[in-house]
Amino acid sequence: MSTPAPGPDDPEFRTRAIELVRTRGLPRAQVARALGINVDTWRLWVKQAEIDAGRREGLTSADRAELTRLRRENAVLKEERAILKKAARCVAIESATR
Fold this sequence. Notes:
- The chain has 98 residues and is mainly α.
- It has 2 domains: 58 residues, Arc Repressor Mutant, subunit A (Orthogonal Bundle); 34 residues.
- α1 packs across α3.
- The radius of gyration is 24 Å and the shape is rod-shaped.
């Protein structure tokens, strides 16, 4: 079985696509079309690469990943807290009826 060709979800693919424009000076739209990438998607990749390299303001990929992780963790904690509140109410009602 052969390995599938790298696609847009592959970070290495993104890096190479960005470097094609930077090193060879090819037009961005031409590179995007040749690689089968939407031009606007490609612009977002370049913008994020510039942020990650410190050449532009914004959230780095690492910061964005951590923020996503923390938001998920916060949602789990809120759900657990809501469950504990309901359980505490049930225990309080049960003990009051005894």
